[in-house]
Amino acid sequence: MKYFDAASSVSQSPTKPFGRKARSAMTLPGSCMTRDGRHRSSCTDSCSVPPRGFRLGPVSCRATHPTTVVSVELLEASLAAHRAYLLGWNTGPSESPGLPIYRSEVPHAPLNGVLRVGGRAPREALAEARHRLDGVPRIWWAGPDSDAGTADALLSLGAVRLARMPIMTLAIDKAASAPTPPWLQITETTDMFEFVPVYARVSGISPDGVAVAIERERAFSGDGTVIRLAGRLDDGQIVGTAVAWLSHDLLTLYFVGTQPEHRRRGIGTAMTRAALDLARERGIRTAALTSTAAGESVYQGIGFRTVGTFDLMSF
Length: 315
Hints:
Blueprint: H1 5-8, E1 28-29, E2 47-48, E3 60-62, H2 72-87, E4 101-103, E5 112-114, H3 122-132, E6 139-142, H4 150-156, E7 160-171, E8 185-188, H5 192-203, H6 210-218, E9 225-232, E10 238-247, E11 250-258, H7 267-281, E12 286-290, H8 293-302, E13 305-314
Parallel strand pairs: 1-3, 5-6, 11-12
Antiparallel strand pairs: 2-3, 4-5, 6-13, 7-12, 7-13, 8-9, 9-10, 10-11
Helix pairs in contact: 5-6
């Protein structure tokens, strides 16, 4: 999963206000939520059915393609694991009620941002986020765990929608098989000075941000276990990366990437499969990720299916 590639194209000033784009409702592509709290495998009309429980707000959906049936609990766990990972990068103050914010100081928008908003007035939440993230590029993840209408409210206050990114999950024992190329050796690494510059090149972290990213990786502290995988050639050169985040009984994938000169050789798929195998060996049965549009078909080929959507907002 080139998890951060879509937002890596964001190079706006961290403090410059943005113009307003046309409104568009948050959607859950290709699935409708049934009244018993599960997603239908497909639907033919737009729908908006509130799920059971408090944590997820009402979810709008529009039929675009079929998805697997997935429980609300799985979606909630995926969202919670995602929040836990990004909060592991945080160097700022502790979380505000209903507005978890993380600030890594890395000059890369996806590593500074707002994870959700619940029970807060949008204008008030936006003002606090701008204050706490002043001076760094940042994004807002408007997803199913935020109050209904969050994306529209942010748009009305001057935010800009950068992308819609699918939240995808997979039962690991259902993953399609994919052999590792014989010339690729995938192992765990703890050498951040070697590992971070490689994924930084693919993810869009600028050279002047690499040193801070290394520092934050070495100080990373989250509610889970992080395992970094490096795919090497025979000469030791790292050509593929993956970060396996084990939290909330899930594997969540980050920074899956291949160096540009080695793409289209099956490296990204091999890195993903290695992370899936690692998680299965540790008793984890489900994987999750958030994909860019470019990577979505690759993950669908492995077996991942869309269960929700994030609106990535610049503010």
